[in-house]
Every structure is written in structure tokens, then in C-alpha cells.
Amino acid sequence: MLQQRTIKTLTRAVGVGLHSGQRVELTLRPAQPDTGIVFRRVDLSEPVDIPITAMAVVDTRMASTIGVGGAKVHTVEHLMSACAGLGLDNLYIDITAEEVPILDGSSASFVFLLQSAGVELQKAPKRFIRVTRPVEVREGTGPSTKWARLDPYHGYKLRFEIDFAHPAVDSTGQSVEFDLGSGNYTRDIARARTFGFTKDVEMMRASGLALGGGLDNAIVMDDYKVLNSDGLRYDDEFVKHKILDAIGDLYLVGKPLLAAYSAFRSGHAMNNLLLRELLAQEDAWEIATFENERQAPAGFAQPVAAW
What we know:
This protein is α+β, with helices and mostly antiparallel strands and 307 residues long.
């Protein structure tokens, strides 16, 4: 049986929120089978649980935000991407503020934290959402066109294309494909950092955003070049970060997908719209489990140590 996964022991991190600039503590704790991933606002007078679902997403401006009632958690996508990359199904995430810490701007620090805690197999079948027919969402026309799509696929792969009119971005890879069956999330994707432009940072800070952003947790560009002294971590780091974000956004559906995702100029809003469109079309998906690991797609049945 292909089994569910959690972590073996709790682990903690302290950092600042990218947009709030607020100090925040995370405590990641093991969870029982079929719990899913649950964020818990422990700083409130009465702690509030926010279970991960596509419908829990309440805002997609600049980040993916989940919420229940008045309780929210902003910028969950990098941590969710790490959980997806490591195949974790069940986890409690205690948080002392309303934004996940940005750490180094990628998911690599979260991967390290989770791997340090150890991954534990659980006595319950891992449940997938298997896409059975194509689902697509589109926005705009001509040069402003954006789209995202899910197609049936025995495995999980993502292809993303970006379109930025900027010398530093245009000189790197504009599209990338990552297949969990042949690639390695930790090596190929996890280290890609979020990025922004100096002209936008000033505008965002005036609106109370990006207050915790800087060269130590983002790729920052002026009108011509990358300002980080250490340059890029991947030749195609910009588009790889978009893949990293998409993996996190799509894991907000609550279960790993068996599908091929493709997108052009998509973002948090369109990724969530795609999940909602998928769930609304009940003939476009089904729940799948694998009684034999040999029947599972490549990438999901690997030994824990290989992730």
C-alpha cells in the first residue's frame, strides 16, 4: 500500500513575514492519518484551526491567503510547496502571527526543517485527486492572455511559461517543465526564490506590503539587472520559482494531484480558480489510492530517504 506521511517529531522556525515584516514563530507537529494539513493561529485568544482546502483560500493578491471567519494566514504557498515536494499528507502548523515567515524566499528552508524532523509513514492509504479529463481557466485576450490547465496524467508534472519584458528575466529560461517522476524537488525546484522589482517594492511598501522583503529573502531587480551580489541560484530561477509557487498553490486542494499542469502567466489567483473549477466539475476527477506501490506513478513510491 502507498502510505500517508507525516513528520516524526516537532520542529520550529522563527522569521519575519514578507509583507507584514512581523516576527513570527512556526511549530510544525505530526498529525494523525487523514488529518490533512492544518494551520493553527495560536496567538489568538482562542486558537483557530484553518484546514487546508481550495475553498479556504480567501485572498490571492501577492500571495495565497487562507482563512476561517476572521482568522487568516498569509503567504502559505512556499511552505505548502515544501509539504507537497516531500509528499507530506498530515501536519499541524502552529503559527504566532498572520503570515508565514519568508525565511530565504524559497521553500528550501522549509524542506530542511521538515527533513530534520524526519518523515514517517502511516498506516493509511495515501489518497490522490486523479484528473480524468482536461480542465482549463483563461483570462484576457491577446497580449494580456493568461491561462492554466490540468490534463490527465499518470503522475505529476508541471510546465510553466513566463512573459516579463525585463532584460534580467529575458536572458534566462522563460519556460520550464518539472516531472516528479524524473526530477528531484529538493534539488531542482526548492531553492528558487521569490523575485521583485525595485520600482514595485516602493509602491508595495506604501500600501503596507513587502515590509519584510530584502536582498536576503528575494531576488531584487532594478530596470536592468539583478541586484543580489550572489546572482541567481538556477539559470532559470525566475520561472522555477513560478513552478514552486504553483506546486504550493495546487496542494491547497488538500490532496496530491495526479495530473499534468500547464500554465502561461498564471499566478495565485488563477491557480486557485483552476482548483475550484476542477472540484466543481465532478466528472473531471476521482479519488485514487494504490494498494501496491509498484502501481503508483514514479516519484510517489520512492523511499522516504530519497526525497
